[in-house]
Design a protein that fits this description.
CATH architecture: Up-down Bundle
CATH topology: Ferritin
CATH class: Mainly Alpha
Helix content: 55-70%
Number of helices: 7
Structural class: mainly alpha
Strand content: under 5%
Shape: elongated
């Protein structure tokens, strides 16, 4: 089946823009995290995200066929040309909100990369397979941190619950933004179940 080149390009841009914008947001914690270990861990997470950006935008440039590079797409587009979901560009907020956002994004990516490894587009499948190794570590680490903060003091629990309720609607949009359509066969995805209402989510 022939894939619409523009649909493929828009999908690749969205994937690359998501990791690009979130990578830069996470990098803002470098030198400012509450403990040294988290400072280094978040810097490493940001680097992983930028590495994934290089792959997605590199393939996007190839599909676009205008002689551009991943760097061109990352740095030389106007703001309204970016395709990232809102979740990735939100201000960091406090440390708890940053970690909750990271967990929600990691959980989303974990499912998506697993599905994309079965894509009919060999390059998409290869990128997903490579990214999935980093994503698996990210989601394990962010989940452990979210649970730790949620089970911590009364204040940390309250902050994490507030972060979840604030971020949940934006996370739900991630699912809608990547919903497959009959004209988008490269995803080879099954519909992801609709997320439950935010008021049913409790840490």
């Amino acid at each position: 089946m022939t894939v619409d080149k523009n649909l493929l390009l828009q999908f690749l841009l969205r994937q690359g823009d998501n990791t690009l914008i979130l990578g830069h947001r996470v990098s803002e914690w470098c030198g400012h995290s509450p403990v040294l270990e988290e400072d280094i861990a978040l810097a490493n997470t940001a680097l992983d995200l930028i590495g994934q950006t290089q792959m997605w935008l590199g393939y996007a440039a190839e599909v676009q066929g205008e002689g551009k590079t991943a760097d061109d797409l990352a740095f030389l587009r106007d703001a309204w040309d970016f395709r990232n979901v809102l979740l990735t560009e939100l201000p960091n907020g406090d440390f708890g909100q940053t970690l909750m956002r990271q967990f929600l994004f990691d959980a989303f990516q974990s499912v998506l990369m697993g599905r994309l490894m079965g894509s009919t587009d060999e390059t998409v499948a290869a990128i997903a397979a490579k990214a999935s190794k980093e994503v698996a570590y990210h989601v394990e680490r962010s989940a452990d941190t979210v649970v730790g903060l949620g089970d911590g003091t009364e204040e940390s629990h309250s902050r994490m619950q507030a972060a979840l309720e604030y971020l949940w609607p934006m996370w739900a949009r991630c699912l809608k933004a990547t919903r497959p359509t009959p004209r988008w066969p490269l995803l080879a995805l099954r519909p992801i179940r609709r997320p439950c209402a935010p008021n049913t989510m409790r840490l």
